[in-house]
Write a structure and sequence with these properties.
The protein is mainly beta. The chain is built from one helix and four strands, in the order E-E-H-E-E. It is flat, with a radius of gyration of 16 Å.
């Protein structure tokens, strides 16, 4: 969900995979994250295992109309 679509504007996106021990968890999913079905965790990156890039998304060339800003 977050590695594609509008998040690819500019440089593209990527899906990463790692093993995250329980000790690396700073915060669990918020109510909003659960509502969206993403179940995002905030992790202390120094405690993660190897990080592997498993999928790339090409940059989106979408141009926004900024005339109203």
């Amino acid at each position: 969900m977050f590695a594609s679509g509008l998040n690819t504007v500019g440089n593209g996106g990527a899906v990463l995979q790692t093993l995250a021990p329980t000790s690396s968890i700073i915060a669990g999913p918020s109510k909003h994250s659960i509502y969206l079905g993403t179940y995002e965790f905030t992790l202390y990156t120094h405690k993660l295992g190897d990080i592997v890039r498993i999928r790339d998304f090409a940059p989106c060339n979408l141009l926004f109309d900024q005339s109203h800003e």
